[in-house]
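Subject: Sanity check before I submit

Could someone independently write out the structure tokens for this chain? I want to compare against mine line by line before I put it in a report. The sequence has 292 residues.
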Amino acid sequence: MLDLTETIFMILLPALLALAGCVGLVALRGRGFPVLARPGWDGAVLALAVGAAWVALRGGFHDPTVDVHDWLPWFALLAASAAVQLPALRPAWAQVGVLAVIIASMLGLVISQLPVCHGWSLGEKVLWFGGLGLGWVASVWAWRRSALAAGTGVAITTLVLAVACGALACLLFGGMRHAKLAAPLIAALGALVVVGWWRRWPFPAVGAATAVGLLLPLLLILGYFLDEVPLWGLPLLALTGLAAWPTAWGRLRNAAAWKRLLVAAAVVAVVAAPVLVHGIVKSIHDSGEAPY
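---
Independent answer below. Compare away.
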């Protein structure tokens, strides 16, 4: 059960911070701040709002070498910086290189602290680190391209659905802690949805896609190692972030926004269904075996 304080920190705080940050961005941009002409500031606002919520949920800053979850606020700061800086990098391979460095740093810090990873051989470490890292970099890069192609409103709404599926997967596989940590992402994205459908909103969704692409897979990886999220489910949940991309193809490109959103939602549902159905079946089976 959630108490009132947790609910405020998980939902109300990040939503209000994200909404206030978006309003502030528009106001400052209108006053002629040239630095705010760069895309990606929406992602910075999102990541900072989520980071603040994580600090509140964790009860402040703590030594991250004691509990791996105390790295999360610092990773949110890193995601905020990446959301703003990546669009300014040219050529494209420079963006991929910076993404790879950021993700390698995050993944290295996380894996080095997980007890289950301490007994790995060098070959196992290389295999796991390389596989997860490459998949993570590819996901963020593809999410960014999808957000640019689909348009702001559809892209951000699709990101909400993708994060919701990730949070539900964590919950179904015994990761209440990680589902709670995903809730601020959903709440802050909800605030961005409000402004993302506004015609005068000046920022494409590439910043939000960068921030979510760096933070959500982290929670899913923790859900795999510390809970029971299946390994085969990670790529499927990552693919949900690309559900808006087909709406930029063919006839759908010029279709009404609500039609494109319905298509994106259907793609999310189809891709995430195997993971979520498996989780529901497992939850029912586990509850049936519970002692009375």
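---
OP: Matches mine. For the report I'm noting this point. The mean pLDDT is 89.
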